[in-house]
Structure prediction request, 276 residues.
Amino acid sequence: MDLNTVTEFLPVTDAVALRHAHDGNPATAVVAGGTWLFSVPQPHLRTLVDLTTLGWEPSTVSTAGIELAATCPVGALESVPFPADWRARPLVRQCVRALLASFKVRSVATVGGNVCAALPAGAVTSLAVALDGTAELWAADGGVRRLPVEEFVTGDRTTALAPGEVLRSIHLPATALRGTTAFRRASIARLGRSATLVVGRRDPDGGFVLAVTASTPRPHVLRYREVPDAGRVVADVEEVVAGRWFDDVHGAPDWRRATTLRFAADVVEELSGGPS
Prediction:
């Protein structure tokens, strides 16, 4: 879609230029892949700031984990090298494939764009919250702050970004990447948008994490010292969601609730060694 109200396209090459170009003006937006930005009318926009010219390394693997630049293409996640003891690698492919898009779109759509769009079905959001991802945010005044991705996405298409802030990267810690994961996803059509997505993670120390996305307006993450009883997890999900199930053309709230609770029990049983 043409954005015919845009009159400036500004490439930036360093943090100072980025701050000057993106100072919180609501008529200015940053762009990397642009897959969402160019998919709907944006009549309020006059200026686009190009992040791709900053030259950020798409991904960096270290003993501390993986640093994913906001400009990293979603499709590139599948080729990030994983050490042998990082058991969560299958989850990366599962979440990438959960993005309702062709491989051509995945090669352009970015990690930052997917998370900042804050759609309940955001595939990278699901990956990041399940693996204790932390967002690094650059402020217009030059400051830097870090926020768990589960707190960064605050609702359907809303985030904790302040005016002028830019998502720089997402860090996935090695402690979470060493965990064993279980993945469940449902949509009302074979190639439909995710309506329910539940990830369980069992860490080497026995700790258990359950992440619920797609069926709720914002992510919910539950943490336990050990794999709990399935009944307890189901009750805890009910309590934390408190009836706020997402409702749109991709799934009714009662159906999303039912599939989420069933999937929560499934991943608990899978990761505890019980029947799945």
In short: DSSP finds nine helices and 14 strands in the chain. The first helix runs from residue 15 to 21. The first strand starts at residue 8 and ends at 11. The mean pLDDT is 95.
